[in-house]
Design brief:
About 7% of the residues have low confidence. A hairpin with a 2-residue loop joins strand 7 and strand 8. The protein is of the alpha+beta class. It has nine helices and nine strands. It is 35% helix and 13% strand. Strands 5-6-4-8-7 form a five-stranded antiparallel beta sheet. It is elongated, with a radius of gyration of 24 Å.
Length: 283
């Protein structure tokens, strides 16, 4: 019995359960394409997007090499890869799954507050949350959060614990990048000056501003999906209406940030959203 035998046994067990495995080499990455397939000269695997026919028997094309065919997994053409493999990967999308890769404690804390519970698997630095359903894969949807589903792979770390639930809309919404990327580094603490601009105050009574802040808090609190984008758009609306006359105070901004953090936003994301909104308005 060689050292690689247990790894191949895990792969065959996954395949029997309908989860397409593939070998991962040092660095937990797929094997490179063979010479004939280098640079996708062959046209790619048939199950890859915009790919032509490829009949290469080797472990090629990264996630697209994953298969549930036990004959392929046990074939001589895959033997060299299994001997060099350090672990087993799998194609979540091929199994009808989506893996939310939470890479730090802050990401896990956010998931517990913002997402429905599902099956979880401990990782080296965080957790995998596994949902039933597929979507496009996107890295960096939040700090320490990657989505692995269609056209992607994840490391197999065991079956996990808990009941797997259906992929929620809040996770699908993470792949919609409505908020612009940070334009400049944002400080961790936002201080709003007594006067953002030199414009004349248009507020006839203090109630006008108070009503606007209350409505903004309500809009954030009632968001059921795309919370990140909702926070940004709300900050943009508040600054557009009240940002140039100098009426906004630290107390107002603290209320908005508190509403956003209650929905799972981190202090840094709040700061970035506020900075981006000010930049978009030329403040």
């Amino acid at each position: 019995m060689t050292q690689q035998t247990p790894i191949r046994r895990v792969a065959l067990s996954l395949a029997a359960a309908g989860v397409p495995p593939l070998p991962l080499r040092v660095g937990k990455v797929p094997f490179g394409n063979c010479r004939a397939c280098k640079g996708n000269a062959c046209g790619g695997r048939p199950n890859m997007k915009n790919a032509g026919p490829c009949h290469c028997p080797g472990v090629c094309h990264a996630w697209a090499a994953a298969t549930t065919d036990p004959a392929v997994i046990a074939s001589p053409s895959w033997s060299a890869a299994w001997r060099q493999a350090v672990c087993v990967g799998y194609h979540p999308g091929g199994a009808g799954l989506t893996v939310l890769d939470l890479d730090n404690a802050e990401a896990i804390e956010w998931a517990h507050s913002a997402l429905p519970a599902t099956r979880t698997v401990p990782t080296t630095r965080g957790e995998h949350w596994i949902y039933q359903g597929t979507m496009r894969s996107v890295n960096g949807v939040r700090d320490g959060v990657d989505i692995k589903s269609a056209m992607s792979y994840a490391r197999w770390l065991g079956p996990g614990t808990g009941t797997m639930t259906a992929l929620p809309d809040v996770v699908r919404a993470l792949a919609v990048k409505e908020q612009p990327a940070p334009i400049r580094p944002a400080p961790q603490v936002v201080t709003v000056p007594s006067r953002i601009g030199n414009g004349e105050c248009r507020h006839r009574t203090p109630a006008y501003l108070a009503r606007g802040i209350a409505m903004a808090e309500q809009r954030i609190t009632e968001a059921r999906s795309a919370v990140h984008a909702t926070v940004y758009r709300t900050f943009l609306a508040v600054l557009s209406a009240h940002g140039r006359c100098g009426c906004l105070t630290d107390a107002h901004v603290t209320r908005l940030f508190a509403a956003a953090q209650a929905k799972g936003e981190s202090p840094r994301h709040c700061t970035d959203a506020w900075t981006n909104a000010r930049t978009a308005l030329g403040m």
